[in-house]
Amino acid sequence: MLEVKNVTMQFGGLFALNDVDMSVKQGEIRGLIGPNGSGKTTLLNVITGFFTPTSGAVLLEGDKISGKPINAVSQCGLARTFQNIALFSEMTALENVVTAACVHQTINLLSAVFKTSKLKSQEKECYEKAYRLLEFVGLKDKADIKATNLPYGQQRLLEIARAMATDPKILLLDEPVAGMNEQESAETVKLVNKLRETGLTIILIEHHMKFVMELCDSITVLNSGRKIAEGAPAEIQNNEDVIECYLGKKKGG
Ligand code: ADP
Ligand code: MG
Prior knowledge:
By secondary structure, the chain is of the alpha/beta class. The protein has ten helices and ten strands. Strands 6-7-8-3-9-10 form a six-stranded mixed beta sheet, sandwiched between helices. A four-stranded antiparallel beta sheet has the order 2-1-4-5, with helices on one face. α3 (about 95-100) packs across α5 (about 115-135), α3 packs parallel to α6 and α5 (about 115-135) crosses α6 (about 150-165). The longest helix is centred in the middle third of the chain and has 20 residues, at about 115-135. The protein binds adenosine-5'-diphosphate (ADP) and magnesium ion.
């Protein structure tokens, strides 16, 4: 479904990504792990169109999406959350999701000025969809609360609801449980499993090994911008290069 081909991303002399390949199947949950600064967020930024790679390409269902503007990539079916929360803090939870639910609707100026019935029914659909998504992530009774007034864990769940509002084929989550307490992380595990059941393809960056091992079908490991390993969770756990890059030494050595 998604193919990252020989992607290199340079910032000046720094290779944030160096010749990275990755292919993700439909319906898969792919974990992306690696030490701080290894290029995980950069890879997400390249896949979602925030950066155009220095070289290489990203293909979605065979079509090249790298080099397209962010909103075009989003229209192709990719949605993400951010490592640092990026909600509209002064809007309510519902409004945050509604803005995303309406984003791909084509509304012409005349219908906007005259508030045509078509526009009104589109608006109604957006609100209904936003409510359904809040319910899905467990925030239905928080609809009217300003995003900034929600506890941290709920803000992260709201970000997922907002990302889902664009009906993505692939959802990319950047450290979804970072900063969460144990109960909030457990809620998030449940939510990601529920998303998996809908057939959604998910790519998730995470530091918490337990979370990654529990959820992911397969894992890609980056270190200093290079892919150093890829495989099922059990293989990755026992991979010498991975152990070395996390613990700074070889197994038994
Ligand atoms: P990770 O998410 O794995 O912690 P990042 O992808 O954020 O790592 O960063 C990889 C490397 O690229 C780091 O050295 C970081 O400083 C650098 N980097 C990321 N984004 C930029 C940018 N916009 N400009 C310059 N350097 C960047
Ligand atoms: Mg990061």
